[in-house]
Amino acid sequence: GQNIDQPTEMTATEGAIVQINCTYQTSGFNGLFWYQQHAGEAPTFLSYNVLDGLEEKGRFSSFLSRSKGYSYLLLKELQMKDSASYLCAVILRGQAGTALIFGKGTTLSVSS
Amino acid sequence: EAGVVQSPRYKIIEKKQPVAFWCNPISGHNTLYWYRQNLGQGPELLIRYENEEAVDDSQLPKDRFSAERLKGVDSTLKIQPAELGDSAVYLCASTSTGGIAEAFFGQGTRLTVV
């Protein structure tokens, strides 16, 4: 079966750096996305990784190691508005095309 | 460009009643997903469409849930009859087909079954 694991909750302070880890055991892996979801809102795209390595996008970076089934999302210079749920999602390719499967999400609380 | 549109935003029904959700994906997006999200959880895939064909409905509880995507554009998800455990947010997402493309989500329908 498919399995995607993330920590349930994390806390951090304004201005700090936080790393949210995601491990996966899947078949047909074709890439990994990170989404941000504020309470009561829809998930919004943050980043994606297809190849191993680091992708940087402003204050957010995402890393992928396909051989280890591991990714992380790095958030720098944390702001209060970064308090949200962060969802790791894996793209799986099968006979019927690709599907996007989510982990349970990590709730990040940023305090002043 | 308009995003993914879902309606209604909120729905409260009594158990055993039917309910339907509607989704209009982004124009040109052939892939459409329906997810269910419980509080504090990630989205759980219910069904995926490629154009008008349901290509992955293995997680859809077929005894009470049904979905359709006529003409490969709009989609509806129906529950009949609803149970208390169906209370959740139902999210629709769409993406272009082929390669790696981000999925765009609608605002979701928050269903409360009482």
Q: What is the compact description of this entry?
A:
With 112 residues, chain A is mostly beta strands. Chain A has strands spanning 3-5, 9-13, 18-25, 29-37, 44-49, 53-57, 60-65, 70-75, 84-94, 97-102, 106-111.
Helix and strand layout, with pairings?
The complex is a heterodimer of chains A (112) and B (114).
Chain A: E1 3-5, E2 9-13, E3 18-25, E4 29-37, E5 44-49, E6 53-57, E7 60-65, E8 70-75, E9 84-94, E10 97-102, E11 106-111
Parallel strand pairs in A: 2-11
Antiparallel strand pairs in A: 1-3, 3-8, 4-5, 4-9, 6-7, 7-8, 9-10, 9-11
Chain B: E1 5-7, E2 10-13, E3 19-24, E4 31-37, E5 44-50, E6 53-56, E7 65-68, E8 75-79, E9 88-95, E10 104-105, E11 109-113
Percent helix of chain A: under 10%
Uncertain segments of chain B are: none
What would you call the structural class of chain A? mainly beta
* Secondary structure category of chain B: mainly beta
Q: What is the straight-line distance between the termini of chain B?
A: 37 Å
Rg over alpha carbons of chain A: 14 Å
Proportion of helical residues of chain B: under 10%
What's the tally of helices of chain A?
0
Relative strand content of chain B = over 45%
Q: What's the overall geometry of chain B?
A: globular
Ends distance of chain A: 41 Å
Q: Please state roughly what percent of the residues of chain A sit in beta strands, choosing from under 5%, 5-15%, 15-25%, 25-35%, 35-45% or over 45%.
A: over 45%
Biggest β-sheet description of chain B: 7 strands, mixed
Q: Report the radius of gyration of chain B as a whole number of Å.
A: 13 Å
Mean pLDDT of chain B: 93
Q: Average pLDDT of chain A, to the nearest integer?
A: 94
Low-pLDDT residue spans of chain A: none
